[in-house]
Amino acid sequence: MNVPFVDLKIQYSSIKEEIREAINRVFEDGIFVGGKYIQQFEKDFAALHGVKHCIGVGNGTNAIFIILKTLGIGAGDEVIIPAHNWISASEMTTLTGAQPVFIDSDPRTFTINVSKIEADITKRTKAILPVHLYGQPSHLHELQSICRKFNLYLIEDCAQSILAEENGKHVGTFGNAAAFSFYPSKNLGAYGDGGAILTSDDNLAKKIRAYANHGMVEKNVHAMEGVNSRLDSLQAAMLSVKLKYTQSWNEKRIQHANLYSSLLRDVASVNTPYVRESVKHVFHLYVIRTEKRDALQKYLSSKGIQTSIHYPLALPFLEPYQSDNHSQENFPIAYRDQQQILSLPLYPELTDEQIIFVCDSIKEFFH
Length: 367
Ligand SMILES: *Cc1c(COP(=O)(O)O)cnc(C)c1O
Fold this sequence. Notes:
Number of helices: 11
Order of helices and strands: HHHEHEHEEHEEEEEHEEHEEHHEH
Largest sheet: 7 strands, mixed
Mean pLDDT: 97
Number of strands: 14
Strand order of the largest sheet: 1-9-8-5-4-2-3
Bound molecules: pyridoxal-5'-phosphate
Oligomer: single chain
Structural class: alpha/beta
Shape: globular
Radius of gyration: 21 Å
Strand content: 5-15%
């Protein structure tokens, strides 16, 4: 049996007719940038979250940059970011001229350790940028109270966590603004690049919309310099089709994760994902921890099971941040996790037989 890490073709074939129709409509109308398809998607995406504004942008990384810039973050400022993370948040912080400040992970959840944040807040700190890694919300209520106490912006990176919840409330609705990515393999994936920003702040929404489109507030009126970062009509029309299924695809992911966790429960050498009681984890990734990670990965590969590592090095240990002299002792959990994490195949169309095969293979390896 072959178990690919992810397979985007199965999902496409299940909605092929609708996607083809959406593509045809866009081409027949000849509206490729701006216009009704993007407006419809933005309206639906905002409504689904109960947030006032959605602005489609070119990708999730741009979404983070645009939020930081329009909140006025730049040289001399610091932004608090989880150490165990994809690079977008830190590289975009640097691009604004501000300094990323890395915080170690929570020992159980892979997300930012909120108890470590206050000690690193300085007069320069402007924002906290939690990342709901793998699909599990960061400790959002605690983060909100830290932000209130120190007068900081809260910017959510929801690239891996669309429609995840804390206490019944969707991620992306807790802070000043939130960034989403529609990279093809994300829980809501486009057929190419795409991203969006959510905010309920009218003023900020206006700035974001202008900044993402050359600073234009109306045709040829540039209130500021900006960038060109737009979600195009074709992606928007296809995303509108997929948006209807996102919730049910998330439920499939959760079912698969539950099956994995129950089958792996008795494997002493494997730590299955810890899910906090107050959250809905949407399992963009199913990540286990084991001290025999590299050997296990090799064994699974020999059985036709593709796995991956998200991510092999925590941000403080990446080349661009070497000059800051970060040490393992400052990030003990992120350092442990980068050596032990393994992402198992997970996508809505995965079958129970495949999951059972993966778990049987893991058990064989440890016997
Ligand atoms: C995918 C991802 C991004 C960036 O999204 P792109 O659309 O690829 O730019 C940002 N943050 C996290 C945590 C991601 O997983």
